Amino acid sequence: MKYSLILEMDNEKGKSCAVAVTFRTDASKRFDGVLWLHTDNPLYHDDLLHLEQFVNQNKDRWLAIR
Description:
Layout: E1 2-10, E2 16-25, E3 31-39, H1 45-57, E4 63-65
Antiparallel strand pairs: 1-2, 1-4, 2-3
């Protein structure tokens, strides 16, 4: 399935970022990769490493894309 989510996170430099992400999940609704990503401030290497964690922490806000 495909889902989208808009969340707020701080980047590694402490700047707040509004992040819109579209991603897919496997049959068990486990995160299975980013399909599209947009942010109003830069995300850096460590931020991207933690993106899956932020997505999973907001699972109750996922919007299914048909």
